[in-house]
Amino acid sequence: MNSSISPEGIIGANTKSVKEMTSSSTTLSARMVFSSKAHIALAVAVAAAFWVIFNYFDGLLLFSPEIDFYTPIPSNALPGFVLSNITAPLVGIVVSMNIYIIRNFRSLKMGKSFFSGSILSTASSMCVGCSSIGVFLATAFGTAGVATSSFMSNYQIPFRLLAIGLLAWAYYSAHRRIAKSCAISKP
Fold first, then answer.
1. Which of 57, 129, 157, 179 could form a disulfide with 22 if both were Cys (CB 3.0 to 4.6 A apart)?
2. How many domains does the chain contain in total?
3. 2 lies in a domain?
4. Contacts of 180 (CB under 8 A, 6+ apart)
């Protein structure tokens, strides 16, 4: 097998071996995407931004009067902190893979499911971190805002687990799209 990871290096390969390789290893698509320093930088920047957002909304990262992190982490905030540390890098990876797909595979048909799955998984992971915005929801939407805020804060951990599942599904669907574009049969 050619040591190149790019689609051009795989085109000459036997279709069966490419399909076996792509179905057996979900890391092939990640290696293709993250062989570029730009995609690595994008994933790191997105992950860092979401980590800051999640921890700010959870009240663990403080910006006033100076930047400070709440330590030691309270035992009731520890599960949310662990899940946000899993969610933030997953968001970075999924966003970077989707940007790679949009840039490199313009000839592929981008269906509604591609965008809805990516947006749904990213939005659900962001929305779960916003349970501390209850005051805003209450003032903006009244009783419905209070009910939504209460519901979000009571079920924050299951929502975060659901968001991680959606992000894993988005990663897998991006992997399939990249792997499918590499498997070109011989005439």
1. 179
2. 1
3. no
4. 22
